[in-house]
Amino acid sequence: MENGSSVNYKRLVWHLLFWLAYLAFMIIDDGFDHRDNWNFSFSFEVLTDFPITVLVVYLNLYFLMPSFYWKRKYLYYSIGLLLLLFFGGMVGRFFSWWIWLPKERAADPTSTEPTDFWIITRIAKDAADIFPVLAATVFIKVMRNSSRDERKLRAIEQEKFAAEMSLLKAQINPHFFFNTLNSLYSLTLEKSDKSPDVVLKLAELMRYVLYDASASTVLLQDELMHLKNYIAIEQMRFADRLELSFLYSGDIEGKVIAPLLLLPFIENAFKHGIENNSGWITIDLKVKGKLLNLKVENSYNPKTITKNEGIGLKNVKRRLELIYPQRNELKLEKDDLVFSIDLKINL
Hints:
347 residues; alpha+beta; Heat Shock Protein 90; 2 domains; 5-stranded mixed β-sheet; 62% helix; disordered N terminus
């Protein structure tokens, strides 16, 4: 209620300022004679012309436009607007004929001003005097509503974006922990001494995902540390069955990136690169200026069923489209021996 009252108050102030400005314009304009000299005169017809204009404007804004214009019934609106202007001209002519013309004749009996009510040119002139301010208020109203609708659309798009990003993250995180817990399970079955280290690194990963990765962006060096922990866990699991090369270089300090964006590519390499309990993986991350380039290659068995590329890669493709539109390039290639990923992102 408080916010609504504040908005209504602002609207009232703007309306008052608009009408005060228009009234001042009418008075000043009425003070010029036919030679464009200011004669400091005041025509009392302003006392009726002004409220008639106000009435016509608000009938248009709060009756005609909601009934026809906003519903795209433009023909009906045009007809209604012409009738409303004719009504305004008729009312203006009525007050002129009933009040101001008799007063003028009383003050100047020699006046040759016509006494007939039905003078079409006078009615049309009174209607024409109303039209500029009516057109101005229609323009202001349309622009204001367009701006409001644009803000609403932008807010809806932002909410949709946030909701979709939350959903994608919610899908990525369980997928990642499922793979990691599988690794830990394998080590515990073997009663490996490496299990405590895996638990410690898993705890660090959980802290990162639960707290740091909830932000829209994270420091690239933190994301890199997250990848190191994941790779270390997988190295503990596969030990000498895995040939791994992990290199990174470039200006990493101060760069930011969307969290958990690079992980699915690393996960995919471990998932499909270790066939028959052995395999190889190379990971190369370079940063030059604002350009990040991640290349991942892994051994590949063409007999492996690859129709379903997995939830991780599907989600990361969608996230790239949402977060870095027109600022990313992703190439996925495979042959009989190698599956490779080449990702470029303009940070």
